[in-house]
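User:
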Amino acid sequence: MGRHERNLPDSKDGTLVEVTDRVIGARALLAPGPNPRTFNELVVGLIGRAMGYQPVELCACVFASNHYHALLVVEDQQALSRFMYHFGGNSSKKIGKLRNWKGALWQRRYDVTVVSREPEAQWKRLKYVLSHGVKEGLVESPIEWPGVHTAGALLRGEPLEGAWFDKSKEWAARNRGLEVGAYDFATKYRIGLAQLPAFRHLDPEAYQDKIAQLIVEIQDEGRTKRDGNPVAGVEKILSLDPYEPPTRRPKNSPKPTRFHVASREARDELWKEAAAFAAQYRIASEALRVHRNPKAIDWFPPRSYPPAFPFIGPPPTRRPPSTPTRRLRIEGSRVVERGEIPVVEIPAPVWGSRGQAGELVRVRGQPP
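Assistant: Predicted structure:
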């Protein structure tokens, strides 16, 4: 299927997807060195700004040296496309500028894999994401990874913190001859991490206990796999040359599956839904393109992208106003007084048992 034909399963609670992308040439441009605080702050700020542009739920993410993985809960394909459109474009510009890299940052369009509603499948994908850094023998625990890694935040129940830097305002100020600091046009973001959809019946403390058990399991498996060999260590990770081509040729094989499932029944169900969606889309597309039938636009399935037409479904979330920046008092060409850096809170959704038969409902926080 073409990329505009692909759909996500309908779910009132959202769909869990795994998103991944790789740096062009598999270079280590995402390595957090030499200053991991600056790099991590930038990456989390990019995620937060994209979530302000199109709200999604972030369950986990990890940024390795040459690729990243993220587990997101999205309402439909449009929400995912808008979020990734904002994150992909801005990350390519800002990370490229930080690394003094000219040209494209990402090797290809991001890959999306739907994770079924089965608890086993969702927990397996969370384990896979959090095990990065350990399974490769780089660190002993995922908490030790110096880059952006949600293992520690999930374990402690804390939000991710980063900053968005408004380079347009900064450039305009420098163009007027002002001497500005690095954080004069910055906005801090605090991103709450959502629980996996299949585990939202757990209270936060119970979920953190399961995360702690998972991290111990990852550490034990990594220790067994190393068979007594030492890990590379944080210093080795921070010393990676981001411009050096990899010593091993990266894999360019297509992803093995469109779905992550725990049972054949779940896979068959997802494939049937995808096949029905594709069949309806192709019938409508042929009627529109070949037979020029103007009524064919109404035949496309809901939540799809017809050729040369806007998305069929609910209207997108309104784009939020520009992020606030700190107040500055300027005298001449110097900033003589700086206010507090504004903070944008993106809380994780709160779940509780309400309604009939204890049905779980989502209580969203205020939009950022």
